[in-house]
Model the fold of this input.
Amino acid sequence: DTAVSQTPKYLVTQMGNDKSIKCEQNLGHDTMYWYKQDSKKFLKIMFSYNNKELIINETVPNRFSPKSPDKAHLNLHINSLELGDSAVYFCASSQVSRILSGNTIYFGEGSWLTVV
Amino acid sequence: GQQVMQIPQYQHVQEGEDFTTYCNSSTTLSNIQWYKQRPGGHPVFLIQLVKSGEVKKQKRLTFQFGEAKKNSSLHITATQTTDVGTYFCAVFDAGKSTFGDGTTLTVKP
Done:
């Protein structure tokens, strides 16, 4: 069983189109994330949801709209795709702990988006 | 929020040589995490350090957290071709993990 699964794995689309990426986790975690990894492998957080509520939005263009129907799902919809949106988008989850030691992030396998 | 800088960005070694990547911060870190991402894969958690001066080992991998909790290192002894990939340090703070820019390791057989 894949702990964090996201679809589609590959997506090639034209500029201006709208697309969605779906994500599901079966780990029972309360927190889910979207990370973007560019061609230089820099990994940047985009959004974080805790129990369906948006808690982090890292100055992402409002063409990107996350939706969390329940705490096991976090989808990402992108409107009016641009060439610069080409990247790998990783869904992830964690169980946020109150202790200082931090939390392990579990990543999905990634969705490779190419905008042409 | 807490941020980390990671060096080097790339490292190419001959199989059997050692490898080290460094993670530095200008502020005291509450914790440091290390992840490995194989080519074409996704980041996978390796370890977490929280104590000043902490050292942990996983087979040929040695992880250290500085005494001042402002730096960390990952050292691989006698690299193998299976070690190729990008190694990220990260700090978990304010409900999210912030990643360093990664060190991409290539190993020549």
Remarks:
- The mean pLDDT of chain A is 92.
- The two ends of chain A are 34 Å apart (CA to CA).
